[in-house]
Amino acid sequence: MEKKYKAVYEFSKLTRILHWVRAICIVILTITGFYIAYPFIAPDNHTGEPTGFLYALMRSWHLILGFVLIAISIFRIYLFAFTKECSFERRSFLDVVNPIVWFKVLKAYLLVGGHPHLKGAYNPLQMVTYIGVMLLIIGISVTGLILYAHVYHNGLGGAIMPFTRELEVLFGGLANVRFIHHILTWAFIIFLPIHIYMASWNATRYPGAGIDTIISGYKFEKEEQH
Predict the structure, then answer these.
(1) φ, ψ of residue 222 in degrees (nearest 5)
(2) Cα(193)–Cα(190) distance, integer angstroms
(3) What is the mean pLDDT of residues 54-63?
(4) CATH of the domain at 157
């Protein structure tokens, strides 16, 4: 019997755009952040004149994309929590609190069972992971703003200084803030290849899902036979 599939609209266009912009920001922020911590290359300047401002360029891109990431993340949280387009994503919480779905999903990942039917866009493991990633973004953004305010004392830096000072004390000092910022960067470095692998694996094992969905917005489910 021929299997029939139906298209299910899972991610809105805005959600998909924000996903890829955020991914690009994280990659470039990681590269520029490591350069700021350890300038491993310098411009070839034979004249001795201070014209090769590579460090300043790296720092500028780090700041620009850092604020882009903060803005996108705030907007993404708003979309997820309040918009109709993301209602299918919010329904994933119904599966998170269902131990039976957890059991079936883990069986699927261990290759001893099929993938269960989900009520939302994400399975429980994905949902918990993505919430963790958002908490990582919040953590690295807060520590980044504390470091920013210590360098730029006017404008935005001056405006947030009273709040960042309190947070700095809470974290145990500026050295700890920098260390936490660095550790959270490594958390992203560990997450990204795992995320790409799992999305590719999911798209291969369950066609119509994974990477396909975050590009087209649609996943394909088998139609129930009556």
Answers:
(1) -70, 135
(2) 6
(3) 92
(4) 1.20.950.20
